[in-house]
Amino acid sequence: MDEKRRRFSPEKKVAILREHLKNKMPISELCEKYGMHPNVFYRWEKELFEGGIGVFSGFFRKRNSKERAVEQRLKTKVQQLQEVISWLTEENIALKKALGRFERYVG
Length: 107
Fold this sequence. Notes:
By secondary structure, the protein is mainly α. The protein has four helices and no strands. The two termini are 54 Å apart.
């Protein structure tokens, strides 16, 4: 069993799936023709249909510059908030240590 795993480009995968869906070619014939296991075909088919949901829901639609700017501002704001939370957590731990109450929370 020294066979190497075959790699198919995304374009080739779509072409093989199209051959089955449009030309009604049986999966067994396709798999024999391209030297692949039927499980591989079914996995590609599943991925195609799951990815299709994103296409029709607008998931892949291009965002305009205004949307990108809003997203960037939100990311910056989240980062600032995470820094504040980190600082407050450090100050809280330092205060608890100073008051001798930290041991109850650790261990």
